[in-house]
Design brief:
The structure holds two protein chains of two kinds.
Chain A (H helix, E strand, L loop, with lengths): L1 H46 L2 H17 L9 H15 L1 H14 L8 E3 L4 H7 L4 H11 L5 H8 L3 H15 L2 H4 L1
Chain B lengths: L2 H15 L2 E2 L1 H13 L6 H4 L1 H30 L4 E5 L14 E2 L3 E3 L6 E3 L10 H10 L3 E9 L2 E9 L7 H17 L9 E7 L11 E8 L10
């Protein structure tokens, strides 16, 4: 008797799970279109490595997809950026390996979303010596359009620290006007 | 220029210098990835096969352990000793309970000195001199004692090249080994009984599988030969 009930419960649960998954996919797609490009662009100007930026962004999105219903994730966008930024810091090799493995599994390789990147070398020369946190705060503020509060959440630091990083980045990048 | 103006200019600069990203390609890629949300590994795709392989591996490991223990028990009851004579460098031999083992002899290149390493047990007192002379004359010789009923026999395995397997050559080898045994009193090892076996085993093969001629000698009564 218990066995029959168990089967019924599984069957009843199955359509709901399918519906959940469909809803998650739709919401996830919206998020990808809303923030995918901005995330890759921001990460590129943080890491100065477009390949790594795209890989880290995909990794972060995949992780978000897998943790979509995690109640601990309150602000999905901030969480996404935080994961992507962290992934692009110390996990270069791990990310490469994961991506290569995933590409083999999905029979997909050498298809990059990043179409072109032709930055002003002077701008890159100014960005390169900046500490990673200053680069991150500046990219999120000037490119992703985040407020200092959103940056603080994404970087997991205080708003005051964000203001300080932005101030220093601004000072360092000021000389770019001379070349513009 | 005030901060607000600077920020506006920097926003423009950032936009200009950021890469161009194709939203559709990025989204399509993610869609492909999320379709295989949990990429199947061997662990998840074939749980039964994995369990069977694990069980098989466990059986093999247990079998090997059992075989090792059986071999250890068997060898611990034997009173055999092994002597190795070779030009090749060898690590010191290991002596287990009840066995006599002498290590290989290493030809030192420093100041052309001869050095011999040993665990302390030798088959007969002048064994190292025997080995040294045989090695100097280009013979690879393995020596050990073997118990045959109540009798102990000094076994001498000699590795020969295939060119040396003519009758004249093998006769010469037997004569040489007997001469060495007499010279260095090898009779003490096994009460005078010595068996010389010739093998043309290629490298990596078992010597005993390639023994092509064997003769017994009684060193206590000068030389007696026995046909293989």
């Amino acid at each position: 008797m218990r066995e029959v009930n168990a089967i019924e419960t599984r069957e009843q649960r199955s359509p709901r799970r399918a519906a959940d998954r469909e809803l998650r996919s739709a919401e996830f797609d919206d998020l990808v279109y809303a923030h995918g490009s901005a995330l890759v662009r921001s990460l590129t100007l943080i890491t100065l490595d477009p390949g790594l930026a795209e890989d880290a962004a995909q990794e972060a999105f995949l992780k978000l997809y897998l943790h979509w219903n995690d109640p601990a994730i309150i602000d999905r966008v901030a969480w996404l950026y935080r994961v992507a930024i962290n992934r692009s810091k110390d996990y270069r090799r791990a990310i490469r390996r994961t991506i290569q493995l995933r590409d083999r599994l999905t029979a997909r390789a050498d298809r990059r979303a990043l179409e072109s990147w032709d930055p002003n070398p002077r701008f890159i020369d100014l960005l390169r010596p900046l500490p990673k946190r200053q680069r991150t705060a500046a990219a999120l503020f000037y490119l992703a359009g985040f407020s200092t509060q959103e940056i603080a959440r994404a970087m997991d630091i205080s708003e005051g620290a964000v203001g300080s990083h932005l101030h220093k980045a601004r000072q360092a990048l000021r000389s770019i006007w001379e070349d513009e | 220029m005030d901060t607000r103006t600077e920020d506006e200019r920097l926003k423009q600069i950032y936009q200009r210098n950021a890469p161009v990203v194709n939203d559709d390609t990025f989204a399509r890629h993610l869609e492909e990835v999320t379709k295989c949300e949990h990429p199947k590994t061997f662990r998840t795709a074939h749980p039964k096969r994995r369990a069977a392989l694990a069980a098989l591996a466990a059986v093999v490991v247990l079998g090997l352990i059992g075989f090792g223990i059986a071999e250890l028990v068997t060898s611990s009851g034997r009173d055999d000793a092994v002597v190795v004579i070779t030009d090749d460098p060898m690590s010191p031999g290991v002596t287990s309970a009840g066995t006599e083992t002498t290590a290989g002899v290493t030809d030192s290149t420093i100041a052309n000195e001869w050095t011999a390493t040993t665990t302390g047990t030798t088959l007969f007192p002048q064994e190292h001199s025997f080995m040294r002379e045989a090695s100097d004359d280009g013979y690879n010789v393995f020596m050990f004692t073997k118990q045959e009923g109540d009798t102990k026999v000094l076994m001498v395995w000699v590795i020969l090249d295939s060119e040396e397997t003519t009758h004249e050559a093998t006769d010469a080898v037997f004569d040489y080994m007997v001469a060495l045994a007499e010279k260095y009193d090898a009779a003490e090892a096994a009460g005078g009984r010595m068996r010389v076996e010739l093998s043309d085993a290629p490298p990596g093969e078992l010597i005993k599988d390639y023994i092509f001629e064997s003769r017994d000698f009684d060193l206590s009564e000068t030389t007696t030969q026995t046909a293989p």
